[in-house]
Design a protein that fits this description.
By secondary structure, the chain is an all-beta fold. Helix content is 0%, strand content 45%.
């Protein structure tokens, strides 16, 4: 296993390359596992010299609008599931829901700490929590699926 530490635009990344089979590398970035498909196979016995880690994208924060009539809720069709994804990399601080809980659009479903700030992650949909893919204390990357509303 090869371990690396990177700093990209001021953000620290701990990267572990667990194994390489053909053109797929099993990589852990800040505790989150990824299967990385390489454009061409590499020799796993060779020493890896470069690993490209993309910097997190800047997340635009919506401005807070004055209190108005509540927006129409987005219901989720039966049999479907909508993923709630991490808007930025961080650490899960608190889960506010459990599988089977009913949530409404705008309900806080978990708290994500990023850059020493706690961010309430709200459901974009109304429905029932069908799966939770993270736990408190776990690090997540931007775009990671946190839970599913069905």
């Amino acid at each position: 296993m090869n371990k690396y530490q990177y700093k990209v635009q001021g953000v620290d990344y701990d990267v572990e390359i667990e194994e390489v089979e053909g053109n797929v590398a099993k990589v852990v970035v800040n505790g989150v596992r990824f299967d990385v498909e390489l454009k061409q196979p590499i020799n796993p016995a060779s020493t890896l010299k470069k690993v490209r880690v993309e910097a997190p994208k800047t997340v635009a924060r919506p401005s807070v609008a004055p209190a108005a009539a509540p927006a129409a809720e987005k219901p989720v069709a039966a049999g479907s599931g909508q993923a709630i994804k991490a808007p930025l990399p961080g650490t899960i601080i608190d889960l506010k829901v459990n599988v089977g809980d009913t949530v409404k659009q705008g309900d806080v479903v978990l708290v994500l700490e990023a850059m020493k700030m706690q961010n309430n992650i709200e459901s974009e949909y109304s429905g029932t929590v069908t799966s939770i893919t993270v736990k408190a204390g776990e690090s997540v990357m931007e775009g990671s699926v946190l839970l599913t509303i069905g």
